[in-house]
Specification:
heterodimer, A: 262 residues, mainly alpha, 71% helix, globular, B: 70 residues, 2 helices, 0% strand, elongated
Chain lengths: 262, 70
């Protein structure tokens, strides 16, 4: 990467190898850090949601309020606004699970000690995108029937007939390949880039403050360190935002499949 | 002069131009939309972020492509 240009004196910039950590237990080679974190996230989510919904009171406890805040946001802000008030309710569990799962896994990226977003390994977002792909296609086929679904998808009304040979394959490709591909890449790349960004700034600040000999670099290291803290807050925003975007796009695809064409 | 390194950051910069302009246009339209009709916020927000996500995807593909093609 470009940092290699600047590294004269033994600074090793972080690279892709930072994502291939050795497994914590030698006996179980498949149990890597991201897999452990994902398993842990399920435990965290179950415990949190159980505590939040255990005592359902009219005047909510602090825990219940936090749970309701997230649930209300997904139900009203994402599901109802996009799918419509008629049949949004059966998709709320899926969307809520997706949102909370991605959110907790992303927030690992800035959690002290952990500092690793599992979604920066492309396998995890890929599975979520495949779930989304299956759901919106199955919903569309069930609602409209197999051939009408693909017909409505490919032959958009109101377009001149001579455009169809060009447009129909594009629409088919969009629904079946490009949508899951971009869903995967968006989440993966944001987490990957965010983690890399933090690493560059934190490792760089550490090098400039402690290991570098020139006082000029030491002074610059202070700014780098301050920027690393600022970027951590920016990462919190990006992590929450990506959870929102992933859920919102899934909801939009479902809405497109349940609606009658365009 | 002797330069060594990799040109991929420059290509990413080129890829980011389009996305940058696109995201700017989307949010400009989003903000002026809210300014004209504040009650349309929830509808506009959904579509603004959808458009933003689509635009952003191109820059992100540019960002990860060097790692795949390496």
């Amino acid at each position: 990467m470009s940092i290699a240009l600047l590294s004269g004196e033994g600074f090793v910039p972080p690279g892709v190898q930072e994502f291939y950590l050795p497994p914590p237990f030698d006996a179980i080679p498949w149990l890597t850090k991201p897999i452990l974190l994902v398993m842990l996230s399920v435990v965290i989510i179950v415990v949190f949601l159980h505590l939040a919904s255990r005592k359902r009171a009219v005047v909510p406890s602090r825990m219940q309020f936090a749970g309701e805040l997230v649930y209300g946001f997904v139900r009203d802000g994402i599901a109802r606004d996009t799918i419509g008030s008629k049949d949004y309710k059966r998709f709320v569990p899926l969307l809520f699970a997706m949102f909370v799962f991605i959110m907790v896994n992303n927030l690992y990226g800035i959690l002290p000690v952990v500092y690793f977003p599992p979604m920066a390994k492309i396998g995890f977002p890929l599975v979520l995108a495949v779930v989304s792909l299956i759901v919106f296609n199955v919903v569309g086929i069930r609602k409209q029937g197999f051939f009408p679904y693909f017909k409505n998808m490919m032959f958009i009304p109101g377009v001149p007939a001579y455009i169809y040979p060009l447009l129909a394959p594009i629409e088919l490709l969009t629904a079946l390949i490009i949508r899951p591909f971009t869903l995967t890449l968006r989440l993966f790349a944001n987490m990957f880039a965010g983690h890399m960004l933090l690493l560059v700034f934190i490792v760089g600040a550490e090098y400039m403050l402690i290991e570098a000999t020139s006082p000029l670099l030491n002074v610059a290291g202070v700014f780098t360190g301050a920027l690393a803290i600022g970027l951590t807050f920016y990462e919190i925003f990006v992590e929450l935002f990506q959870a929102y975007i992933f859920t919102l796009l899934t909801a939009l695809y479902i809405a497109g499949a349940t609606g009658d064409g365009h | 002069m002797d330069l060594s390194g990799n040109l991929t950051p420059i290509t990413f910069g080129l890829a980011a131009i389009g996305s940058g302009i696109g995201a700017g246009l989307i949010f400009a339209a989003f903000i002026s939309g809210i300014a004209r009709q504040p009650e349309a916020l929830s509808v506009l927000r959904t579509w603004a972020f959808t458009g933003f996500a689509l635009v952003e995807a191109l820059a992100l593909i540019g960002l990860v492509a060097p790692f795949f093609l390496e």
